[in-house]
Amino acid sequence: MLLEWCKIRLNSYEGVHIQNFHRSWRNGLAFCALLHYHAPQTIAFDQLDPDNIEYNLQLAFDEAEKLGIASLLDVCDMVSMETPEWHSVMTYVSSIYNHFNPKV
What is the C-alpha end-to-end distance of the chain, expressed in Å? Predict the structure, then answer.
């Protein structure tokens, strides 16, 4: 369900191809796109470089934190792993989901 939620919201973002909760998020574009989708003023998505992984991740994590989303992932960990730990990524994406979709 959460993965499908992401796919639906991010399918129009160039360079973002959501297939899983590990490699699809590694370059930071998916995190940036998800934030841009819900809070477009936070990130100039069209100016991001998919090869600038550290910048993209740091930008997404910093902007999410400014919005009140706890920083659960570390840029160094995401960059150092070819395949990030899916459970950690899913947990962080879940926190973004919960932030923008509060329970009534």
Answer: 19
